[in-house]
Design goal:
Helices cover 47% and strands 14% of the residues. The radius of gyration is 19 Å and the shape is globular. It has a single domain, classed as Alpha-Beta Complex (2-enoyl-CoA Hydratase, Chain A, domain 1), CATH 3.90.226. By secondary structure, it is an alpha/beta fold. The longest helix has 19 residues, at 111-129.
């Protein structure tokens, strides 16, 4: 991945957004497993960070190696403070099918390995959710199980009419394990979350929009272009203000006064005031 334009992390904002301590022992446990197929790849497009779920042979299912890749990507997020992020998949007809069943059966059924997977993916997705910029997802086809949990870590979901989102865990005799249940409650509310987790049938893009899970519904094949266009628009606003907005929304109301005072009279604020005066 090309090096980003240097961006100094704001310690105040990062301290408000940084979730749990990095689970190093769990990461090491996953690193020690056979990698399996696929990869999660970062890519810079202008001043937008894209995260590609690249496992088309398995409908975007997440292997141990992809878990490690995701940790590596979220470790770099402070370098992109305030940048929009777009998550998408290389699978032509799917977003992410959750855990890769071949790897799960071979390496993740034992309790210690399963515990490491839970710790690693919960931390990584919480860290993505806490990024100091808007995290968008472009969804074509099904996002099932862990794939649906992945979506709960994103702020703005662009679903094509081909998308289906299913918390199918109950049909497999398990419950969400990547932090998705709590994030789902925060996104759609307790009532919708309870019914969705209890009824594993995948929901259409239109149903997701009615429940508050989808923010845009676009024609089939148009999700990525729509998400990239919105991300490019977001990237045009001042970086410091974008990071501050993320801190206000994601970090809690107690940060609002302090964040305002940090921005008031700053370079972006003064430049905006000067532009207003010049336009009169």
């Amino acid at each position: 991945m090309a090096s980003p334009v240097p961006c100094r992390p704001n310690p105040f904002i990062e301290s408000r957004l940084m979730p749990l301590l990095r689970p190093d022992a769990a990461v090491d446990r996953i690193v020690g497993l056979p990698r399996g197929g696929g990869a999660i790849r970062p890519h810079i497009r202008g001043r937008v960070l894209e995260i590609l779920i690249d496992h088309p042979q398995a409908a975007g299912a997440v292997s141990p190696g992809m878990m490690v890749d995701l940790v590596s990507v979220v470790d770099t997020l402070p370098q992109y403070a305030g940048w929009p992020v777009v998550v998408h998949s290389s699978a032509p007809r799917a977003f992410c099918a959750g855990g890769d069943l071949r790897s799960v059966r071979a390496h993740l059924m034992e309790n210690e390995a399963a515990s490491a997977m839970v710790d690693v993916l919960t931390w990584a997705l919480d860290r993505l959710s806490a990024h100091s910029g808007v995290v968008l997802a472009a969804v074509e086809g099904p996002a099932l199980g862990g794939g649906a949990e992945f979506l709960t870590a994103c702020d703005h979901l662009v679903l094509s009419t081909s998308a289906r989102v299913g918390f199918v865990h109950a049909s497999l005799g398990v419950s969400p394990g990547w932090g998705g249940a709590g994030r789902l409650v925060r996104r759609v509310g307790r009532r919708h979350a309870l019914m969705w987790l209890a009824d594993p049938r995948p929901r259409s893009a239109e149903a997701c929009a009615r429940m508050g899970m989808a923010d845009q519904v676009v024609p089939a094949g148009a999700a990525l272009e729509s998400a990239q266009g919105l991300a490019a628009d977001l990237a045009r606003s001042p970086e410091g203000a974008r990071a501050a907005v993320a801190a206000l929304v994601k970090g809690g109301a107690e940060t609002e006064r302090a964040t305002f005072l940090r921005l008031w009279g700053g370079a972006d604020h003064l430049a905006a005031l000067a532009a207003v005066r010049a336009g009169r």
